[in-house]
Structure formats: structure tokens, C-alpha cells
Amino acid sequence: MIIIYALIGLNLVVSFLGFQALQGMRSSAADFLFEPYEVHRGRNLKGMLISNFAHANWFHLLLNMYVLYISAPHILFQSNLAGFFLILLAALVGGDLLIYFRRKDDPHYRSLGASGYVTGLLFAMVVFNPGVSFGLLFIPGLYIPGPVFAILFLAISWYMMKKEMAGISHEGHIGGAIGGFAAAVLVAPQGLAPLLAWFLSIFL
User: Fold this and answer.
1) SS3 26
2) Is the four-CA dihedral 35, 40, 173, 109 of positive or negative sign?
3) Contacts 24+ apart (CB under 8 A), 197-201
4) What is the CATH number of the domain that holds 57?
5) DSSP letter at 52?
6) Domain total of the chain
7) How far apart are CA 184 and CA 99, in angstroms?
8) Is 70 exceeded by the pLDDT of residue 145?
9) For 65-111, what is each residue's pLDDT tens digit?
10) CA-based torsion, 123, 153, 51, 16: positive or negative
11) Mean pLDDT within 113-140
12) Model-level pTM?
């Protein structure tokens, strides 16, 4: 759990510093933002990294840290520290890559937040334990089977990304989900077998 607390602490510190810079729109604000247009031109590489631990506001931060807190222990328990960091890194890179390739020619696009790799951790949970269910924050008592949740999440995120619905980095969510899922398949002792067995149990 020390690793999880350290990761949450890093997000808290970076986000707090980011709040001060972003609210005043200081010259340092760009250090907390992923700007694919700038990165494509060799600028603001620092922002691409730091933005993964910065957040737009307290709600954004607390929501991501809550999901991180409930998902990370499951992965650490069923794998090991190296496996956990591989999944985390794959989700982080996956989210950033999809954002970069889709938005590198958009000078107005900016993103920040841990949502990409946090989504990757949720998808990794589904690989390790397909029987997991996810509750919805605003609908108490409603639980959705993990594999069904994953499919719905991807479908909705894809639709919203194609519709260019602003305010949320759908590319980050999708890329993070794919990266986390793929890494989890490599790390999980049984790979995809439990998830395939879950789907077979539904249809047979």
C-alpha cells in the first residue's frame, strides 16, 4: 500500500501546484498541460509528463484518486510490483500516444489528469478478475459486471471522441484502457483465459 499512497501523494502535490499555476494562468501553466501540437514541434515535453499527475480541479483529482485507491490493490495483490508498474506505464503511454497522434495538429487541444492510466488499471482488474463488478458513483446500488462495463465504457468513449465532445480526454481514456488491458494480459498468470471463460459462461 505504500506504493499506492506514494502515487496518490505525487498526484496531490503536482495537482496542488498546478491549481495555483492554472488558476492564475501564469507562464508556468503550460508545465502542467499536455499540448500535442507543441510536443509535435519539439516543445513542452515537460508538460507531457507532468500533466499525467496534474488535474483541472479538486473533483477531477479526488475522482481519479478514488478509482486509483480501489483498483491498484487488486492488481498488486494478484501480480507483483514490477507487473503493477508495467501496467501503469503501458496505460500512461497508451493514453498519451493516442492523444498525440489524434491531436498533434490541433493548436487548441490541451489535456491533463490521471484518467488515462487510472482507466488502464480498471481494465487490468477485468483481466485479472473477470467476476469483478463496478458500481456507478451517482447511482448507488447499481453494479455492472466488469467485462460489460469495459465494453460499454469503450463504446461510449469512442462515440464521444468521434463526436468531438469537449471537456474530457476521451483519447486518453481509450488509449489508457487499451494499454492497461494489453499489459495485464502479459502480466496475468493465466493471460486472457479467465476472461474468455467468463464470456463463454454467459453464452453457453
Assistant:
1) coil
2) positive
3) 197/130, 198/130, 198/131, 198/147, 199/147
4) 1.20.1540.10
5) G
6) 1
7) 21
8) yes
9) 999 999 999 898 888 899 999 999 999 999 999 999 999 999 999 99
10) negative
11) 91
12) 0.91
